[in-house]
Structures are given as C-alpha cells and as structure tokens.
Write a structure and sequence with these properties.
Number of helices: 8
Helix content: 40-55%
Number of domains: 2
Distance between the termini: 66 Å
Mean pLDDT: 79
Order of helices and strands: EHEHEHHEHHHH
Largest sheet: 4 strands, parallel
Strand content: 5-15%
CATH superfamily of the largest domain: Resolvase, N-terminal catalytic domain
Radius of gyration: 19 Å
Shape: elongated
Structural class: alpha/beta
Oligomer: single chain
Length: about 200
C-alpha cells in the first residue's frame, strides 16, 4: 500500500511593473517544493494566471508561503476570499513578514476574523461616513480631499495594534502607507479635529 504523500510547501511570488526585484521575495521564502512567480499588479486577481495555477495546484495538507499579505492581494476582501478558498481545500497560508496572520495558528484565525469583519462592514459604512465627513468639512471650508481611512478603519487599526500586530502589517492590510496610518493614528492632517466626522452616536 502506498503511503500518503506529505504536503508540499508551495511558494508564491508577485512583483509589479514598478517593483521588479523578485529575488528578495524568493530569498525570504526559503526552500519550497514548488514556486509560482508572476509580474503583475496586485489590484486585480482576475488577470493573475500564476495565482490561478497555484490555487489549482495545491491540495489538502499543503502550505502556501508568501512574503507578505499584499503579495497575494492588495484588497482585504480579495485576500480573505483567497485565504478561504485555500482553507476550503485544506491548505494553510503562511506569511513570512506577518506570521501573526498565518492561518494555521489560533492568533492567525483571530486576526483574519477581525479582517473579515472589517471587509464586511466597510462597504456598509464607508460611503456614509465619507459623505458626512465631506459635508462637515465643506461647511467649515476646510475640505481638501477624502481621507484614505475612515473612522472605522482607524478604530480597527488601533485594536489590531493593541493586540500586538505590527503597524507595518496593519498598514498593508488597509492598503495605505505606514505614514498615512501614523498620521491617522495621531489625528493629524485630514484626520485632525477639524476634519473628522461629526455627529457620532
């Protein structure tokens, strides 16, 4: 009788046209049984052939290793969809730069649950909060441009950071720069007292 084959470590590397240095990602992944590499933007998962081949290739017991969550997707919703698809096949996901999000750990499951809540509530709240904030800012004559992070995003970021998630990882998950996250957390610029949404309950 042939014994069950041990699961494979499958690496996935993505670089965009603006970042061609894939060697650093490959080095960070270490030794893998199979490597999928592509050069394409991370904003749209539909045109990523290697990602599709990777998800079709992996099977129960395998582990997909990527350098950071944004290599899989820059969209929290798409990232969660991919993770759930892989989990449904019995495949774990390992993030080299963000081990707190690894799907085979209780902490990772917890963090992904929070991110899922963010994605589900974001659509229902972001438009209303942005509209309210813009209206208030315009009335005060201080409207410049829409902030990248809503009040909900900022409060979620604070909760994740309080639970030990690195700020760099939180910024990646919210698809903003670390400087934007720092500015929002400090309440400066568009996130200052004159720019925040009023009328909170």
């Amino acid at each position: 009788m042939v014994g069950q084959k041990q699961g494979q470590m499958v690496g996935y590397v993505r670089v965009s046209t603006a970042d061609q240095n894939e060697s650093r990602q490959i080095e960070a992944l270490g030794e893998v049984d199979r490597l999928f590499t592509e050069k394409v933007s991370g904003r749209n998962i539909d045109n990523r052939t290697q990602l599709k081949e990777m998800t079709a290739y992996v099977r129960d017991g395998d582990v997909v290793r990527v350098k950071s969550p944004d290599r899989l997707s820059r969209s929290t919703t798409d990232l969660l969809s991919l993770v759930e698809e892989l989990k449904g096949k019995g495949v774990a996901v390992e993030f080299v730069d963000s081990p707190e999000l690894n799907t085979d750990t209780p902490q990772g499951e917890f963090m992904l649950t929070i991110l899922a809540a963010v994605a589900q509530l974001e659509t229902a709240t972001i438009r209303e909060r942005q509209a309210e904030g813009i209206a208030v800012a315009k009335a005060k004559g201080v409207y410049d441009r829409e902030p990248k992070l809503s009040d909900f995003h900022i409060s979620t970021a604070r909760e994740l950071i309080a639970r030990g998630v690195p700020k760099a990882a939180v910024a990646r998950e919210l698809s903003v720069s670390r400087q934007t996250l720092y500015t929002a957390l400090k309440g400066e610029g568009n996130y200052g007292a004159d720019a925040i949404t009023e009328g909170k309950e």
